[in-house]
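Every protein is a chain of amino acids, and every chain bends into a shape of its own. Below is the pair of lines this work produces for a single protein:
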Amino acid sequence: MTLKPGMYFMSGNEAIAEGAIMAGCRFFAGYPITPSSEIAERLAKRLPQVGGIFIQMEDELASMITIIGASWGGLKAMTATSGPGFSLMQENLGFAVMTETPVVVVDVQRGSPSTGLPTLIGQGDIMQAKWGSHGPYEIIALSPSTVQECFDFAIKAFNLAEKYRVPVIVLMDERISHLYEKVVVPPKEKLILVERKRPKSRENFLPYKAEEDLIPPMPPVGEGYHFHITGLTHDERGYPKIDAETHEKLVRRLSDKIRIHADEIIHIDEIMMDDAEIAIVAFGSVVRPARYAIKYARKKGIKVGLIKLSTIWPFPDKMFQKYADRIKAFVVAEINYGQISREVKRCVGDRAKVHLVPKMGGAIHTPEEILNAILEVK
């Protein structure tokens, strides 16, 4: 059974698993990898209790394609991994984009590249989440900064995947995944759960014929609908059609169905930004020291606010452009060598300074490090 309403004490990985179950996830395929393994361990026990299926796969390639198959069978499906496994999933992630398959992928980031720091924090998979597979496409990625958000964002990830027929990535980091905090589980009747759109009729059914919102309905395989599912460029029947016109129409729609709904998808917390002259930009674990740095800076009379990126992709271009003429400097604190900071710079151009506060991985920023950056740009 799903968790009863109430307050629980759990880790970020456990909260992700329970949020997924609450969202209706009934299939998980994965391969153990630090620091995400507790997600699989929890679901191995919990999914059978709710009538779901857990499969440990031989590797991450198989994990990704298996959840795609489960999704086409009508189940809400998820996998979880970390950087090296996420790299192996990229080809099939692109296949999920091309076939418009709703799945959720949890990437618990660790120190990288390569095997890196398996047990320590990193935030270096930001660009991989967006551009890891080949070709032009759009994707959705969320970033929780509390254990409560791990639970909430798991539900949100499934809702977004089902609504937009797209893979959704939850970009956690090691510190949040192993952090224990209280989680409030609401009554199920108070949750908003999105189910995939079904066609109105079997007559003249075309599996890739989009409606006004650019999203085609998606019935499960096995209910009498005719399907052809391929990663090749395809027409509205799903049949391969290898020409520039068909490819242009298809890929533009796959991208635009996210772009035109970006304002509905993006969630950003703007904290103390009403009078801010300097903005800290942070996500995941770094939000915590950023809050303390703001507190210390405000005591010194420096007007600092926080832009907390709960949605990483699509990137909130409009929000940064809105602030560009008022904010003196954006201080971007991230545990990599400048991935989000480049996006901020792209949005604001020369209208405001973008100051990167990087860490390569293994340790989180201290409030003093972020405060020193604020003092440097004030």
Observations:
- The mean pLDDT is 97.
- The first strand starts at residue 6 and ends at 11.
